[in-house]
Design brief:
- The structure holds two protein chains of two kinds.
- Chain A is 23% helix and 37% strand.
- By secondary structure, chain A is α+β, with helices and mostly antiparallel strands.
- The termini of chain A are far apart.
- Chain B has a four-stranded antiparallel beta sheet.
- By secondary structure, chain B is of the alpha+beta class.
- Classes of the chains: A alpha+beta, B alpha+beta.
- Chains A and B meet through helix 1 of A and helix 7 of B.
């Protein structure tokens, strides 16, 4: 099975995947990349009103092949604060 | 001469003695159980979900796990068993099985016919309570897993699983210098924690970076079990090790002899 590398930037720190994960195909890699963002967001939130989570997939030739972004934008709407 | 490697029944007797000391007759009766040894390869399914086994098995060597197979084909690992543990004592009274059992590593099981368990319990009524204790301990471990799955982060879930496996293997005499054989794959860990493989990989890298684990060539090394327990928020009380209950006042200590 091909090896895919998932680099993740959670808005506070970015980590480069040095080990990779074997997956059957590109579609499986895409599902992993889009699936991991809400999982990480759940663990990292709540912490402020703005946060962007990014997952990049690299193939075994070190080429970026996919990019997923998940953004949180939150704020008071009545002019007040918390 | 080195002592003989403990077999599953020796470890089971030691485990049941954690509830109440066994008499010589009870211990002899357990050792006299008619067992059928069977070997399994890593990943092999031992009992299928929905089966109605007429035997229960005791792990002699290796690690096995119980898992639920969901309708969409996904797996959730719900418990692990190490040498000395019954894989499915409950199948003696609760059938068909609502889960499957598979080998997490090459494993040897001692299969005991339910009829022999029935005879054993009729002749040695005190063992009824000892085996009730064993099933209650299984339930205590399940409750801890439930709390972990629901409330701990991926990082903590993995750390928690490593702490539990380490302490249980250590109790069985199967660790050496903070290391144990570890055959679970990242996919298995994902199925145990309800995480994607990538999330498991990321969390393992974080645990490595924090110097809490070293995982190489199927060996899990834990430099400091106390530090790992702290990171996991792990309280070993649910494992009901009397040795730990005594030690807990100062810190979590292992049974290394």
């Amino acid at each position: 099975m091909p090896l895919y590398f998932f680099d993740i930037d959670d808005g506070k720190r970015s980590s480069r995947d040095t080990e990779g994960t074997e997956l059957p195909d590109r579609e499986a890699a895409r599902r992993e990349a889009t699936g991991i963002l809400p999982d990480i967001a759940r663990e990292e939130l709540p912490d402020g009103n703005h946060r962007t989570f990014i997952c990049r997939i690299r193939d075994d030739q070190d080429r970026e092949i996919f990019l997923a972004t998940l953004s949180l934008k939150a704020g008071w709407t009545d002019g007040g604060g918390g | 001469m080195s002592p003989p490697r403990p077999n599953g029944i020796d470890l089971l007797c030691r485990k049941l003695a954690r509830y109440a000391p066994l008499s010589a007759e009870e211990s002899a009766a357990l050792h006299a159980l008619p067992v059928r040894m069977q070997d399994y390869g890593r990943g092999e399914v031992i009992v299928n979900q929905g089966a109605k086994p007429d035997e229960s098995a005791i792990v002699v060597s290796g690690v096995v796990f119980r898992f639920k197979l969901l309708t969409d084909g996904l797996r959730q690992i719900v418990a692990m068993q190490v040498p000395g543990d019954f894989t499915d004592l409950h199948s003696f009274v609760l059938r068909p099985l609502d889960h499957a059992i598979a080998a997490a590593s090459p494993a040897r099981l001692a299969r005991v016919p339910h009829a022999a368990i029935q005879t054993l319990l009729e002749r040695h009524p005190r063992l009824v309570r000892a085996l009730m204790w064993d099933m209650a301990l299984d339930a205590a471990i399940s409750r801890e897993w439930l709390a972990t799955l629901g409330r701990r982060s991926a990082y903590q879930q993995l750390a928690h699983l490593f702490c539990e496996l380490y302490l249980r293997m250590d109790w069985a005499g199967l660790t050496k210098d903070g290391s144990l054989e570890f055959m679970l794959t990242q996919a298995d860990l994902g199925d145990a924690c309800g995480l994607s493989t990538v999330h498991v990989n990321r969390s393992l890298q974080s645990l490595r970076k924090d110097d809490l684990i070293v995982l190489e060539n199927h060996i899990l090394h834990i430099p400091s079990i106390d530090q790992l327990c702290k990171a996991a928020g792990f309280d070993p009380a649910y494992l009901h090790f009397p040795e730990i209950a005594r030690e807990r006042k100062c810190n979590i200590s292992t049974f290394a002899s």
